[in-house]
Design goal:
Layout: H1 2-14, H2 16-24, H3 26-39, H4 49-53, H5 58-82, E1 86-87, E2 90-91, H6 101-117, H7 128-132, H8 139-163, E3 170-171, E4 174-175, H9 176-185, H10 187-208, H11 219-242, H12 248-261, E5 268-269, E6 289-290, H13 294-297, E7 306-307, H14 308-323, E8 329-334, H15 338-355, E9 363-368, H16 370-381, H17 388-393, H18 396-407, H19 414-436, H20 443-457, H21 468-471, E10 472-473, H22 477-488, H23 501-505, E11 511-513, E12 517-518, E13 524-526, E14 530-531, H24 547-550, E15 556-558, H25 559-562, H26 571-578, E16 588-589, E17 592-593, E18 597-599, H27 609-617, H28 619-635, E19 641-648, H29 662-673, H30 681-686, H31 702-733, E20 742-749, H32 762-785, E21 805-806, H33 816-841, E22 847-848, H34 850-867
Helix pairs in contact: 2-5, 5-6, 5-8, 5-11, 8-9, 10-11, 10-20, 11-20, 14-28, 15-16, 15-19, 15-32, 16-26, 18-19, 20-22, 22-26, 27-31, 32-33, 32-34, 33-34
Length: about 900
């Protein structure tokens, strides 16, 4: 019994800080739990927060580990100091302090470090994050090595404080031993003071300058530095409150309540470059657009917006000049998804342009959300003079390759192979320059501005009357994101949005349509150089001559109708507003009365289908496509057609055509087949008789979380299924008469699941490129080099997706026409390739879900179709190459 009592007292004494942390300090305990969830990859997994902590760069991983150890040290030290025995509310004398209290602090700290280092021995740390990490790298060791570094520094300080004899000579009247011990015991305080001073200096610098960025502090380091100061502040407040500073917590609640209850006193994040005209003096924030007058504002021309029907006619004429015959019209709708979607969208478009020169000229309209529109806008910017693609198109190798293609030189001809090899060398060089602008770290600058400027200054908006830049600012994390794009993309997007207007009107450049959502009313803000007045309301624009009868409701407003003289408004700002996802990006306040804040277009439509289908279904557009355009195509012996490309990096492509959700499929696989995840799990599920226990995915708090879960499910369903319904309406509109004009959908789905973040790991980047090169590049290459080519006939409505199909087995359909076409396409184009791709994507059993099979087949059909199209005229060698 005595031994048990002694052991119990010893453990209680050593684990004193941990016991008090759990029992008496809930705020500090939440800090530890939140940090633990972050380090173990249990939170923010879709944003790859795990890999931001367990970084693959050695110095970042070590810095993260040292900072996490420092935060845990602050927590345990705060508990130790606050839990000392007191007398009448005062600190106890040294004689009453436990001599082993410092040892208990170290033991508790070491145990916490051990707990936080456990993921190093796990097979798949962070589950989804681990799947994306490159295990050939030494990423596992760097983060725990930061713990070792922190422990070594602590051991050195303890050793120095105990090794100096008390009889040593004095320094400043104090014995050296006491002086050294004083310094070493105060080392944590000195470190905190240094960090605080550095943080305040960074606040001043970031508030004074807009383009500040320190690349040695990536997002994780900046966040952990800020979190350590927050933890120290929380520990200090807890210590003072323990010593009866009872007014601290009410004061904190009062400050937070003041900021929340008086929104007019908060900092207003404004849209940059909103000057009136070309002058930098007058701003729309001094003369706001009154939303109540929007009916009158609609009557203006938006400062010279381009009529979309005339732009379509100009595009058709440009195709005749460039190719000598009418060409298919291409519409692109891309999904959101930060850097991953930007990279995937740009890679798909670049591959099609590389394999089929002139593909980009056939694109008339591009719409979408978030990162997808970043990739699309960057691609379009590189088509302009001075862009990477434009520079490549001005080379002799490019011109010789186009000449050989136009002459119909066989792919087996040795001279053609030499010409093509030279062309691919030029395009590969262009590829490196092109994708360097999308593979960079855009999260670091954003987080730096967030933690060093936006967060600390946000409560002081009430000082705007005294200091203007306290009340409103354009120097925020949104501007930092734009500057990061400009820094890595040769300022390709840092141009006035109006500069694209002339090329769009001439039909030589695709039209970009951004559609961020306004928070206050859920309506869209259409940012485009096209006059999209018909998009802001429901119903057909030309149905009734009387406006009051025609208008049912507004679904949005046009940017250039509200601000027609915003000549300096940047393309990068439009991209950023279209990808603003709070809290990572601010909800910018428009200069309107009442104020409207805009956020990511993905809140309303993450796939760009609303804009694309409304443009396609507009009566004037449909009349031209079914009239002059179809007539010219038929006269030239080709089928009039619209190619509708749906580029989706995060398209929920696995479950739209089946009732079980992805989470339910995964749980069914775990229950019945072990831990493997099979995409064809629903096939095995549908063979059951229903006698097994049902799969349940709701948690214990489902009664409380059901409203939120239902709202999120409804949001996703509205976007996914509404998009399909609108596209079906487009098929019906253009299938009234045979051979009039055909609309065909081509879903281009990414088969990998990268992180949803503004920074990607090397492995994520590699996997996205491999997916595009495999599913798009190889198909296009095979279509271009195939000696006998064919054209897959177009149909009006896509067939229903068949039930599960084995590799190479033609899909079963109730449309005999499509069944024949699909069989021909599968036999002549994709049979062998699909087998290889399925084996690569689904190594488990070589089967595909209908959606992925259909997507892969449509990619093959698109490659075959594009291979039949003529190439543009070679550039004139007498015209000098465009300069950057």
């Amino acid at each position: 019994m005595k031994v048990y009592t002694a052991v119990r007292k010893c453990l209680a004494h050593l684990l004193h800080p941990l016991g008090h942390l759990l029992a008496f300090y809930p705020l500090l305990f939440l800090v530890v739990v939140g940090l633990w969830a972050l380090v173990w990859g249990q939170v923010l997994t879709e944003y790859d927060a795990f890999h931001q902590i367990w970084h693959d760069k050695w110095w970042v991983g070590i810095a993260n580990g040292a900072l996490v150890a420092f935060i845990l040290g602050i927590v345990t030290m705060s508990v130790r100091l606050t839990s000392r025995p007191t007398q009448s509310g005062k600190k106890a004398p040294d004689s009453q302090k436990s001599p082993a209290s410092l040892l208990s602090f170290h033991v508790s700290w070491w145990l916490l470090l051990l707990l936080f280092a456990v993921p190093i021995v796990r097979a798949e740390p962070g589950a989804a994050a681990a799947e994306r990490l490159d295990y050939s790298a030494d990423w596992r060791r760097w983060f725990p090595l930061g713990f070792v570094l922190a422990m070594f520094v602590d051991a050195v300080l303890v050793w120095v404080s105990t090794r100096t004899p008390k009889s040593a000579p004095t320094v400043g009247g104090q014995p050296r031993g006491r002086f050294v011990r004083l310094c070493t015991n105060s080392a944590p305080r000195l470190v905190l003071c240094a960090l605080t001073a550095g943080y305040l200096a960074m606040v001043v610098i970031h508030a004074s300058f807009t383009n500040v960025y320190c690349p040695i502090f990536p997002a994780s380091v900046s966040f952990l530095l800020y979190f350590s100061l927050f933890t120290a502040l929380l520990g200090g407040l807890t210590f003072l409150a323990r010593n009866r500073w009872w007014g601290l917590y009410p004061a904190m609640v009062g400050i937070i309540g003041f900021v929340v209850l008086f929104p007019s006193k908060q900092v207003e994040n404004q849209v940059p470059h909103m000057t009136i005209g070309k002058s930098a003096k007058d701003s729309y924030y001094d003369r706001r657009a009154v939303l109540a007058n929007y009916d009158e504002l609609r009557q203006g021309d938006g400062g010279g917006l381009v009529d979309d029907r005339k732009a379509l006619e100009a595009w058709d004429k440009a195709m005749l000049r460039e190719f000598g015959s009418p060409q298919p019209l291409v519409i692109v709708a891309c999904s959101g998804g930060a850097s991953a979607s930007a990279l995937y969208t740009a890679d798909v478009l670049y591959n099609y342009e590389e394999q089929h020169p002139g593909f980009s000229k056939r694109i008339r309209l591009i719409s979408g959300a978030s990162g997808g529109m970043l990739g699309a806008a960057y691609f379009v910017s590189q088509l302009r003079p001075g862009g990477a693609i434009s520079q490549a198109q001005a080379t002799d190798e490019y011109r010789e390759y186009l000449t050989a293609r136009r002459k119909g030189t066989p792919a087996t001809d040795p001279s053609f192979q030499v010409t093509r090899a030279a062309y691919m060398k030029v395009m590969e060089k262009c590829r490196k320059e092109f994708f360097a602008g999308l593979e960079a770290d855009f999260l670091g600058p954003l987080v730096q501005k967030w933690v060093h400027k936006d967060v600390p200054l946000s409560p002081f908006g009430f000082l705007g009357g005294l200091i203007p830049w306290f009340g409103q600012t354009t120097n925020d994390r949104g501007a930092a994101l734009e500057e990061a794009w400009a820094r890595h993309q040769n300022r390709a997007l840092d141009v006035p949005f109006r500069d694209l207007r002339e090329d769009e009107a001439a039909g030589t450049l695709p039209s970009l349509v951004f559609s961020p959502m306004m928070i206050e009313d859920g309506r869209l803000l259409f940012i485009s150089n096209l006059n999209l007045d018909y998009m802001v309301e429901t119903g057909q624009n030309d149905t009734y001559p009387d406006h009051d009868k025609r208008l049912r409701s507004y679904i949005g407003a046009e940017f250039y109708k509200l601000f027609p003289q915003a000549h300096q408004f940047r393309l990068s700002t439009a991209v950023r507003m279209n990808a603003a996802f709070p809290f990572f990006s601010p909800a910018a306040a428009l200069p309107t009365d009442p104020v409207r804040h805009v956020v990511d277009a993905g809140y309303y439509d993450n796939y760009g289908m609303v804009v694309a289908t409304k443009w396609l279904l507009r009566k004037k557009i449909a009349d031209y496509l079914k009239g002059p355009y179809a007539t010219a195509r038929t006269a030239s012996g080709t089928n009039p057609e619209v190619l509708f490309l749906r580029i989706r990096c995060f398209g929920n492509q696995h479950t739209p055509r089946m009732l079980p959700t992805e989470a339910e499929l995964d749980k069914h696989a775990r229950h019945h087949l072990g831990p493997r995840k099979l995409r064809d799990e629903w096939v095995k599920w549908k063979s059951e008789d229903g006698t097994k226990p049902p799969v349940r995915t709701e948690g214990g708090l489902f009664t409380l979380t059901a409203p939120l879960i239902g709202a999120l499910a409804a949001r996703r369903a509205n976007m996914v299924y509404r998009a399909d319904e609108r596209l079906e309406a487009g098929f019906q509109e253009y299938s009234e008469k045979p051979n009039e004009v055909r609309v065909e959908e081509y879903p281009l789905d990414c088969s990998v699941e990268p992180s949803l973040n503004w920074v990607l790991t090397k492995r994520d980047i590699q996997r996205i490129h491999e997916d595009v090169r495999g599913d798009v590049g190889k198909l296009n290459e095979g279509a271009n080099q195939r000696p006998s080519r064919f054209v897959v006939p177009m149909i009006a409505v896509p067939p229903p997706v068949p039930n599960i199909t084995k590799v190479g087995q033609p899909p079963v359909s109730n449309r005999s026409e499509f069944q024949m076409q699909a069989k021909v396409a599968n036999e002549l184009v994709t049979a062998q390739f699909v087998r290889k791709q399925v084996k690569r994507i689904e190594p488990a059993d070589g089967t595909l879900t209908p959606t992925l099979q259909y997507s892969l087949q449509k990619k093959a059909e698109l490659a075959s179709k594009l291979s039949q199209l003529p190439v543009p005229k070679p550039p004139d060698p007498n015209v000098p190459a465009p300069k950057k």
